[in-house]
Write a structure and sequence with these properties.
151 residues; mainly alpha; Non-ribosomal Peptide Synthetase Peptidyl Carrier Protein, Chain A; two-stranded antiparallel ribbon; 4 strands; elongated
Length: 151
Amino acid sequence: MLKEFKEFAMKGNVVDMAVGIIVGGAFGTIVNTLVSQVLMPPLGLLIGGVDFTNLYLILKEGSKAAAPYAALADATAAGAVTVNYGLFLNSVISFLIMAFAVFLLVKAINMLRREEKAPPLAPTTKECPYCLSIVPLKATRCSSCTSELGK
């Protein structure tokens, strides 16, 4: 059984998948940092200095302190029940950037993999000049109208 597992684990597809998962995880960290540290601060300034991570809706005030809360962390510490749509926006933007980056990567790989198209095959049929039926190239008579065909 150990031998079978080793054969399975060493197949090309399994190893490729494992490498893809590891690289994907590292790439996800890079994209998350790009979104949270590079893209979101200027975007927040454009919409009035809002930090998306602190965008939330209070469903129920906390028992430890009353609203308003300065930040999501304060609301959470006070025990408030919140809908954190700012964190959701960060996740959506992060996903879109990740998806676009993967699209560009796949597109680049596909451009490198393009194979030359095979030359078109020589024709194996021809058209009868009398009835316009398709007949084999080597035929001397049309099977539809029985006309003699020139070579």
